[in-house]
Every structure is written in structure tokens, then in C-alpha cells.
Write a structure and sequence with these properties.
CATH topology of one domain: FAD/NAD(P)-binding domain
Bound molecules: flavin-adenine dinucleotide
Strand content: 15-25%
Number of strands: 20
CATH class of one domain: Alpha Beta
Strand order of the largest sheet: 8-7-6-16-17-18-15-19
CATH superfamily of one domain: FAD/NAD(P)-binding domain
CATH architecture of one domain: 3-Layer(bba) Sandwich
Shape: globular
Amino acid sequence: MTTPARARYDAVIVGGGHNGLVCATYLARAGRSVLVLEAADRVGGAAVTREFAPGFQVSAGAHLLHLMPPALLNDLDLGAHGLKFAAHNLPTVALSADGQHLSMQAGGGSGARLSAADARAYTEWRRLMRQISGALHPLLNGAPPRLGTDAWSDRKSLMRLGWRIRRLGRRDMRELLRIGLMNVHDLLEDRFESPQLKGALALDAVLGTNYGPRSPGSVLSLLYRLAATGGTEVLSQPQGGLGALSAALGRAATAAGAEIHTAAPVERILVKDDRASGVALASGQQVLAPVVVSNADPKTTFLGLLGAEFLDAGFVRRITHLRTRGFTGKVHLALDRLPKFPGLDPESLRGRLLVAPDADYIERAYNHAKYNEYSAVPMLEVTVPSLSDPSLAPAGSHVVSIVVQYAPYELNEGWATGRQRFTDIVIDTLGAYAPGLRECVRASELLTPADIEREFRIHGGHWHHAEIAFDQFFMVRPVPGATQYETPLPGLFLCGAGCHPGGGVMGLAGRNAARQVMNRAA
Ligand SMILES: Cc1cc2nc3c(=O)[nH]c(=O)nc-3n(C[C@H](O)[C@H](O)[C@H](O)COP(=O)(O)OP(=O)(O)OC[C@H]3O[C@@H](n4cnc5c(N)ncnc54)[C@H](O)[C@@H]3O)c2cc1C
């Protein structure tokens, strides 16, 4: 680690994940002296690119960019900081073992098995989701209102929410109120015939969560995903993987005047006169600042870095009970050559491939994880990023990046025993759509939620730092007492996926937190 230039800053940010970097940029642009301290030897948190087999690079956590609003990307001017895209507007393809795949793009769905009724229903579904997510998107763009205060800003924010829902019109407003608390399985049963289409849409509702399609709240997580982009989700792959996005964010922060140090783990948040006063690094060095912003997850921040002794017992209980166990894993494959995927044209193969043949398949895959078993036939979200970005693999070889659901944090038989077996299951599950896949695999890597916890320092290894659920969402995220990016300890703020609006490579938590810090200082 290099030594920070000063002993005192206006703000210290603990963690250089993408949200920490976005927060740093906005604070620095506002003229604050900002220091970012990242424990890993590179910035990006769970949005990084690294080698997993000699010559093979992969986006080790997040592998698709689709949630960061274009307005934020433009405002950060990431193109000027070196961000280039290897692929943009990727299609989503629901795989079928008989090669009759279903393709979904902005224009609608297509595939031999898609009935005329489903094609119409899918077009109407997209319209409705665009409407609802367009109405909800502004909620993600600012601090959520606080409940039970007399402040005009909170009242105005609640009124605006009501107005946005009212403006949907009678039909869509009723539909939102009807479906908001439903499970996605029932909702899809209402609207579609095709098991393949229902499987693909259910996957979006449960990816990264501890839900199956029949779990209450699974529609909420779908709406959340769609709301991030106002219903116009575009799937992209930065050239050089998601790590290239983080590197560009790092350069944007530096250009704005922030100072970033990697390999600089923070050991403790310092407290003086009942407020945050800086941080102590693992190296023993101390840096003082009246504002400390934590990009680390809430449990790490409050129970690890701050300490329960500075918090009241009720708050500590809420943080302790926050649901932070991940159920999502990642498998990376280094392939000597790419096997054929019967029925897939080259353009589709570059897209997002889903193994979720129907919603019941997903529910069955989920059942195992509830009992600390891995799924015998898991649900997969697959990309082959080296098709669009050959720099990721040696010539003629390929990288396959697979988000795999469901992998429990704790496995009954222990991950040391189950690791290879589960990796083989994932390879064989995908192999059902690409005969001969196994023979092409030169090396593989499995990241379980426990590995994700270790590698990315996310307590519990959860994609969102804390489950997206009604009791951990919006006005109560992560817990009452720490909403609006503020915490019970004056001077200590949160800016990571654990606060509103949650995880995914979106950047809004970081930007909203910076605004809140500036509001408080104003
Ligand atoms: C397997 C997997 C696949 C995913 N796929 C996608 C995807 O395709 N698309 C998508 O949009 N999202 C995806 N996500 C979610 C997304 O990656 C995360 O929600 C997002 O990266 C969180 O960003 P963050 O900046 O809030 O936190 P993080 O990325 O977790 O960053 C927090 C940072 O804080 C640092 N830190 C923690 N403690 C300390 C300390 N004591 N001192 C210093 N630094 C510290 C960490 O090292 C880390 O760099 C995926 C997540 C996982 C796990």
C-alpha cells in the first residue's frame, strides 16, 4: 500500500467498489478532499476482471452491465476515462435442449415455439413493465423518504411516489397494486402459456436472490431490476470485462481529485466525541476525516469496522438479523475450443444464455438450497464474453462465465467435498445444450457464496450485500436507523449495495450517498 498524501481529508471512503468510486467522484467534484481506501489490490469490488487460469481473464463477479442508467454513465464521462464496449444490446436466449431456443430482445420475443398468443402477451408484458418501471425509476434516483417525520422533504417525496403511481392510469395502477406483492410464478401463470418463456422471465425475478419463483416478493425483485433502467434494459459487456468499467470509474474519481489507495484494508472506524472521526488502517496508520463513507456491506461496517459498543442494542439486533446469506455462485470455464450449441446462430451465442426451461425447474433447483444442498439441476445465466472480446482468452480459446443458482453458503457435505461435484453438475447442465462441452474444458473455477465473501469481502457473499425483500427495501433498507445513507453515528454514512436502491452494478447508491453527505454538510 502507498501512503495517503495527508493525515486529514474531508471524507474517507472505505472500499473502492464501483459505488465507492462513484461516491468519491461526486464528492471530489463538489470540492471535497477525498481518500478511497480499498482492501483489495485493485478497485471494483465485485465488478472486477481477473485471471482464473493461465491466459484466461473473466469478470469474476458481475459479468453483464445493464443496470447503470445511461444518464449516470454519461455524467461520469466514462468514455473519456477509457471505457469501451465489446458488446452492446445483447439478446437474451432461453435455451431448449432440442435446439428450439427462444430469443428475447427489445423488439419482442421470437422462436419456433412461441405461440401467437404468447407473442402478443409478451409485447403487452413489456409495455406494462416499461410503464411501471418508468414510474418507479425516479425512486431509485434519490434518498428514500423517512417514515414518520414532519420534514417537508420526506412528505414531498411520499407525495411524489403516490403521484407517479397515480399517473400510470387506472388500468396499470391497478395492475401494479395487484401484482406488487405476488409471487412471479403466479403472475406468469396468469399471462403466458410457454414454459420456456415463463422460465426465462422467472429467472430475472430470482437471479441473485434467496427466492424461488413461488416465494413472496419475487415480483418485487423483478420490478426492482427493471426499474433500475426505467424499463429499457440494455445488456452490455465492457471491453476487458467489468473490471474495465471499474478502472474507468477509478480514473474518473482520480480526475475529479480523489486519492485512491489499493491494498489498504481499513481495520477500524474511529470515533471521537460520539461521531466518526476517521479510520485506522490495518497497517497501523490513522487518517482523520469528519465524514467516513462505507462502501462495505452493513454487517461488516457496523459489527466489524465500527463495533457494537458504539450502537444501541436495538440497532445491533436489526443489523445482526439482516439477511445477508448468498445463494448465487459463479463458475468460470477456460475452453480449448467452443463446442457447437445446436440451434444457436453466432449472434445469439454472443448473448445472455439462460438455462431455466420452466418456472418449476427453477423452483425445484431452489428447494435444494433451502436445505443446504446444491441444486442437482441448477439454473444458469451464461455468457461467452471472449466471442465479443478475444483479449480475454488465448487465440482460438474461449472463456465461459456462468452465474449459477442455487449454491448455498454452507453445504451440508462441506464445499471442500462438494466443490468438484457441483462444478461437474454445472458443466453437464450446460453440456445438455452444447454436446462435447466437457471435452473442451481446460480449466474451471467455482465461486461459492463463501468464496465470494472471502474474495470480495461481502459478509455472507450476497449479490446485493443484503436480500432485496419488503422488510429490507426502500425506506427500511438496510434497517431502520440507517436509511438515507446515514447511520446512528453522526459522520458515518453508507454508500454500497446494502443501502437503497441495492445491488447490481448500478452506481446509484454511491451517487445518492454523495448527495446526502453534501446535503448534511450544507
Ligand atoms: C457472482 C455475482 C454475479 C453478479 N453478476 C452481476 C451482473 O452480471 N450484473 C450486475 O449488475 N450485478 C451483478 N452482481 C452484483 C454486483 O456485482 C454487486 O451488487 C455490486 O458489485 C456491489 O457493488 P458495491 O460497490 O456496492 O460493493 P462491492 O462491489 O462489494 O465493493 C465493496 C468494496 O469494499 C471493499 N472493502 C470491504 N471491506 C473493506 C475494508 N475493511 N477496507 C477496505 N476496503 C474494504 C471490498 O474489498 C470491495 O472492493 C453480481 C454479484 C455476484 C456476487
